[in-house]
Amino acid sequence: MRIGILSRSRNLYSTRRLVEAAKERDHEVRVIDVLKCYMNITANNPAVYYQRNAELVEELKFDAVIPRIGSSITTYGCAVLRQFEVGHVYSINESIAINRSRDKLRAHQLLARKGIGQPVTSYAHSAQATDKLIESVGGAPLILKLTASTHGEGVLLAETKKAAEALINAFRGIGSDFLVQEFIKEAGGSDIRCFVVGKTVIAAMQRTAVTGEYRSNLHRGGTAQVIKLRPGERALAVRAAQVMGLDLAGVDILRSSHGPLVIEVNSSPGLEGIETATGKNVADKIIEYIEKDSKLGPNKPKGKG
């Protein structure tokens, strides 16, 4: 197969591992920076072109693509991916599903509509609703999230009502959309990353925040270890990915006193943490899935919203 990996850099761990896994399985593979692509949007000849340098331009021809689109280039990256889809190129995650997962408000609404357990979450525009927002999630401490946040950026803990009011007013003052969310104290600064491929959780790890930090992201100093999932957690992770329409997802779960709760569904989960913690060849599992699933033809949009 001719496989294209849509990534800004071939030196990133996840990109490099996917290249290695594809080559080990005898595929042709190339890393493509989507910001160097441009598109011919026509009905009879949809195409994506790659501007390698000032003089060399080529039309890209792939049997399958793996999008590793960063949050800062979601709009253009998904436009390029959508053009591949128009040309009937298989993608493990489609543009519509990536856009769903990147919009936190939309993602929470879709998960709620399908009955997926998640922390109590509220959203409002009026400054007069501040007290009601805080009350609706059980009061302080609580979590505030920018709707466009990723990797723990734009996620803040308000330990008191006054702190919550100040943060809410600050976010409103700069015109940023945000969510107010229940703080799950019993999680103890830990969450579970479930790595979903297709309808299977192929690996899972528990991430624990360092002392004084509530975000468990590994790049913030958190630690990771292998964890055995409970059957309900495994089923919840797969269901959450399916609701988003993702065949490749990192589903983050909290263990609460009232059961497992989904806090995020990531469409471009990193491989370094999960491979290091579990010792599993996750990259190989991804390529193996693409080999089988792509034979069914180009993906059709999954999920709703």
Short description:
Helices cover 31% and strands 27% of the residues. The chain is α+β, with helices and mostly antiparallel strands.
As a whole number of angstroms, the C-alpha radius of gyration is: 20 Å
| Total DSSP E strands | 16
End-to-end span in angstroms?
A: 32 Å
What is the CATH first-level class name of the largest domain?
Alpha Beta
Tell me the overall shape.
globular
Mean of all residue-level pLDDT scores: 90
What's the helix count? 9
Order of helices and strands: EHEEEEEHEHHEHEEHEEEEHEEHH
CATH names the topology of the largest domain as D-amino Acid Aminotransferase, Chain A, domain 1
Strand share of the residues? 25-35%
Report the biggest beta sheet as strand number plus sense, adding barrel if it closes: 5 strands, antiparallel
Number of domains: 3
CATH architecture of the largest domain: 2-Layer Sandwich
Given as residue ranges, the uncertain stretches (5+ residues, pLDDT < 50) are: none
Q: Which class best fits the helix and strand makeup?
A: alpha+beta
Explain what the structure shows:
- This protein is α+β, with helices and mostly antiparallel strands and 305 residues long.
- The protein folds into three domains: 2-101, Rossmann fold (3-Layer(aba) Sandwich); 120-183, ATP-grasp fold, A domain (Dna Ligase, domain 1, 2-Layer Sandwich), CATH 3.30.1490; 186-296, ATP-grasp fold, B domain (D-amino Acid Aminotransferase, Chain A, domain 1).
- The chain is 31% helix and 27% strand.
- The protein has nine helices and 16 strands.
- The protein has helices at residues 13-24, 74-86, 95-102, 104-113, 130-136, 161-173, 231-244, 272-278, 282-293, and strands at residues 2-6, 28-32, 37-40, 47-51, 57-59, 64-67, 90-91, 121-122, 142-146, 155-158, 178-182, 190-197, 200-208, 223-226, 248-256, 259-266.
- The strands form four sheets. Strands 14-13-12-15-16 form a five-stranded antiparallel β-sheet, with helices on both faces.
- A hairpin with a 2-residue loop joins strand 12 (190-197) and strand 13 (200-208).
- Helix 1 (13-24) crosses helix 9 (282-293) and helix 2 packs antiparallel against helix 3.
- The relative contact order is 0.15.
- The model has no long low-confidence stretch (mean pLDDT 90).
